[in-house]
Amino acid sequence: MRTEYAAEMEGITKRFPGVLALNNVDLRVKKGKIHALVGENGAGKSTLIKILGGIYQKDEGKIKINGTNTVVQDPSDARRKGISFIHQELNLIPYFNAVQNIFVGRENDVGKGKFLNYKAMRKRAEEILDSLGLSININVPVKHLTTAQQQMVAMARALSENTSITVMDEPTAMLSNREINQLFRLIRRLKRNGVTIIYISHRLEEILDLSDTVTVLKDGKVVLSAPIRELTLSQIIESMVGRSVEEQFPERPPIKPGEELLSVEGLFDENLLKNISLKVHSGEVLGITGNVGSGKSELVETLFGYRRLREGVIKIEGKEVAIRSPRDAIVYDLALVPEDRRGKAIIIEETVAGNIVLPFIQNLASFGFIKQGLVKTKAQELVERFRIITPSLAQKVMYLSGGNQQKVALAKWFGMNAKVFILDEPTHGIDVGAKQEIYNFINKIVTGNSQKLT
Questions:
Q1: Between the chain's N and C termini, which has fewer beta carbons within 10 Å?
Q2: Contact 110/119 with Cβ under 8 angstroms?
Q3: Does one domain contain both 293 and 336?
């Protein structure tokens, strides 16, 4: 059957215990187009694409691929049907090189015979990368590549599966502006080659620049779907959050910086950081910027004790301190939300409540026993303040959307009386309404004479 649509999802409904995640959702994606899917954290975007990818099964509705009714049984079945995914967490094996990552689990698809044909795999990988206009070192473990290069490896892996539909989930979240421009050139090349792209992002300026059509989800329902040329940024935002967001960056309160809270002198780490010095004061917001791989994250992780300090002096309120571990940092009233959310910011298999109270759990205990009533009260307070969408405090964080996981990573530090807040990409994976809330929280920290380092 000839059709203009590469994928059609009609009347999709999905329920989880205590949650109606999707309610009669329609999504129609035209062939060879870039179709944006946006919405607040927990709106249902991830659930919808996981149904398309065979990770979840729908409760109601139907799916058509190229006009034919189909059931996507599992991720392998999705790949056979020409659907590939580039997830926000790239899921590369860090000690494998690009060739091994591109063909992992599909080694027998390349070459002939019963034995692994690495030469054929390498040749095919080079062909794919050349077709995308990419030049990267395919011989080194991908852990040595930049984040942008790792993104390209993930894209090459998806396209090596003879895909006709590619779903990209927050592909620019960890990239610099230069790397984003490189990715956009690649995406447009894929479009010219006839690949259909479903593009998910909280960066709405990207949506306006890149996509042909946008569909907005809110509370598991489609509230807007239209060609991008017919919409403004304000219309998209208002349909997402249900209200007008007049200013994404709230006005900074007029605060005069106070006493010095943190100073760093001559800091060196094992390989990247060289002679870093800085000073920050109460009531001050200090911004740190640079390209991916420039050392921003390594600096804040060293300050918090995740990484070894080879040389240099760290002072808290004028007193030299030795921070050898995150435990030491917490003792000195430092708080860190790291860039690596799943690896370092949250315990993915722990509950929402367990994650939120973890940094100050000792304050909720008496005579060695944790007061569960206090745990519930404090966790509920922070869930409400950060508008974390979860069916209960007992829900495991692994089942929350990426944006709500990020909110949990933020919320847990607001329950302790830290003097210095170190936030590394704090709005990563956060929708536009939640971003404004986080900026407001930063202003509240500053007016409370807590230092905020971003």
A1: N
A2: no
A3: yes
Residue with tokens 């006009």: 67
CA distance 213 to 197: 11
Q: Specify the residue for token string 């490189």.
A: 182
Instruction: Report how far residue 147's alpha carbon sits from residue 377's, in angstroms, rounded to the nearest whole number.
Output: 39
What are the distances in angstroms from CA 273 to CA 8, 47, 117, 279, 294? 50, 40, 41, 17, 9
**Domain of 226?**
5-241
pLDDT band at 418 (very low <50, low <70, confident <90, very high): confident
CA distance 376 to 361: 12
State pTM to two decimals: 0.70
Q: Out of 187, 208, 241, pick the residue that ends a domain.
A: 241
Side-chain-side CA neighbours of residue 23 (13 Å): 10
Q: DSSP state, 338? A: -
CATH for 81: 3.40.50.300
pLDDT over 90 at 189, yes or no:
no
Q: Number of C-alpha atoms within 13 angstroms, CB side, residue 219?
A: 4
Task: State whether 329 and 223 are in the same domain.
Answer: no
Question: Torsion-angle region of residue 7: left (phi > 0), alpha (psi -120 to 50) or beta?
Answer: beta
CA angle 386, 389, 391 (to 5 degrees): 130
User: Cα torsion for 397, 400, 405, 408, to the nearest 10°?
Assistant: -60
Query: Cα separation of 229 and 231, whole Å?
Result: 6
If asked whether residues 265 and 195 sit together in one domain, one would say no
**Predicted confidence (pLDDT) at residue 5 exceeds the cutoff of 90:** yes
Chain centroid offset of residue 131 CA: 28
Amino acid identity of residue 269, one-letter, is: D
Q: Which residues of 31-43 are buried (b: 16+ CB within 10 A; e: fewer)?
A: ebbbbbbbbbbbb
Closest by CA to 48, choosing from 12, 75, 90, 72, is 12
Taking only the tens place, the pLDDT of each residue in 334-378 is 989 887 777 788 998 999 999 999 888 888 888 888 888 889 999
Looking only at the bridges linking them, the beta strands covering 420-423 and 451-453 are parallel
H-run or E-run covering 226: strand 221-227
Label residue 244 by pLDDT band (50, 70, 90): low
